[in-house]
Amino acid sequence: MDDYERPVIVVGVSGSEASAAALGWAAEEARRRDARVVAVRTWAPAQVAYYAYHAPHCDAEQERKAAAAGLASTIRAVFGSNPPPGLLTEVTEGMPERVLADRSAGADLLVLGSTSTPSVMGRSIGPVIRSCLSRAHCPVVVIGPEGRVGDHHAMAAETMSV
């Protein structure tokens, strides 16, 4: 099968343990589906108020390089020295919820990691996941804090029906 004909699984990688679990889950799912995985890491320039004191900050190129290094570190942590064949990476400037929703337009599945457990009183999913659940152009899978599809499956199913 040509690479362009293979299904695409996009996974958001933030550097958190939950996003590492999501990357691992996405790779396993890609193996089952004979799909390609696109690991996306976003970065945004530091917002500095001109009227307030602020510590020196990195320039945009340093921030991009730091994001790329963070993505590479997560890939090494999840796969060691043997990343899955065909794993694609993308480091993009922008708000994660917007970038991931945009990338979902060409994907068959969007995978995200969550450190929250909505069933626990007073805890909710974060703004990136909430936004992606409402704006994604494909089904969304949210990997819970235990590294497996958990209580979020009802929300993922809700997005699938959109």
Describe the model.
The chain has 162 residues and is α/β, with parallel strands linked by helices. The chain has a single domain, classed as Rossmann fold, CATH 3.40.50.620. It has helices at 17-33, 60-79, 96-104, 127-135, 153-160, and strands at 8-12, 36-43, 88-93, 109-113, 140-143. Helix 1 (17-33) crosses helix 2 and helix 3 runs parallel beside helix 4. It is globular.
Instruction: Label the structural class.
Output: alpha/beta
CATH homologous group name: HUPs
Report the CATH architecture: 3-Layer(aba) Sandwich
Instruction: Tell me the distance between the termini.
Output: 29 Å
Query: CATH topology, anyone?
Result: Rossmann fold
Q: Numbering strands along the chain, what is their spatial order in the largest sheet?
A: 3-2-1-4-5
Number of domains: 1
Sheet with the most strands?
5 strands, parallel
Could you provide a short overview of the structure?
With 162 residues, the protein is α/β, with parallel strands linked by helices.
Question: What topology emerges from the helices and strands here?
Answer:
Elements: E1 8-12, H1 17-33, E2 36-43, H2 60-79, E3 88-93, H3 96-104, E4 109-113, H4 127-135, E5 140-143, H5 153-160
Parallel strand pairs: 1-2, 1-4, 2-3, 4-5
Helix pairs in contact: 1-2, 3-4
